[in-house]
Amino acid sequence: MLRKQVFSFKQAKSFFHTTNAVRKAYFYDMPAMSPTMEKGGIVSWKFKQGDSFKAGDVLLDIETDKAEIDVEAQDDGKLVKLILNDGSKNIPVGQPIAILAEPDDDITTLELPKISENSSNKTKKSAKITNKSTKTVGKQAEKSVTKEITKKNDYLPPSPVFHKSDPNQVLYPSVAILLAENNISPQEAFKKIEATGPKGKLLKGDVLTYLGKISPKSLISITEYINKSASLDLSHIELRKKVELPKKPEPIVLKTCIPLKRADIEKGQFTKTLRDYINKFKFLAHQNAWEINNNKSQFYDPLFEALLIPEPYAPRFTVEYKLKPLFADKNNDTQLKNDIFDMLTIGVINNTNNNNKNQENYLLDIEVTVSNKYSDAKEKSERFMDYLKTLKF
Question: Which residue windows does the record flag with biased composition (Polar residues) (predicted)?
């Protein structure tokens, strides 16, 4: 597909060859879409003979060897006659292709310009001369620009940021596009353009400097700034001094000893009952005061209360206890050992030993460790210690 461009009627007007100013009808000549264009073709007319058009309307599509172009009308007018129709090709630039008039002109009474061979030949010759002169000017301009660019790059200020371009590099897309737009091959760029990128990499700024669009001083200053920030200087970095974290406060430990007496109860049952009491006291100590006394408000909501208390079901303290037997004297201790031996060997226990078995004294050694995470932990642990004082057997 050819790339479509828009060519205004105002631009085309400079290429039109009209007859004397007395005539209101005038020729609409084949316009030159570029300085190098010599011939073109008519793809299609957008208006018919006798139609009026307004400024901005597309009059026709013109086809060149490079593109298909829309030609717009800059002023209002009227299409009087088509000299060349759709599909006409190889039309020299400057050859009349239509006759136009002002929008208020009457076509029936309008005097039309005549096409003569001499005028047509003159038009062709003038068009060719114009194209040749345009080509000459274009070439001279290109030569002058090339000379200016070469002169600028010959006098680049000496700087360590410039390096020879690596001929084996893969160009960045932005660099490749810029070179193609200015008709510079990659091989030519590697030879003539100094590189500021790492390892001889060509950058877009290098090409713009070569084309004279930015100054070499600007390129040098930008490159020096980038190179300066490319590597980090760690020589002045000092390690942060070790900060000693505050020590966590040691947990509060509550201790107590409670004497107990086991009478008329088996030892296994005694220890089980003691464990059940301790677990019950722990449960009661973790409850809130209004829960213990059944003193709930009419607005009480357990979900709301759980939101107010941080981690309401987390334990506030831990309990460790030991049950130590107490003996009256060494004789009793020896007698106890004999009783155990007799039980294992003979299985006979006398009445005296039975009395000693059913009446034993113990010391309950309890240690309560209070959590330092919760504000109500100490209060609930002290409540637990108060419950222990009520323990009786």
Answer: 128-137
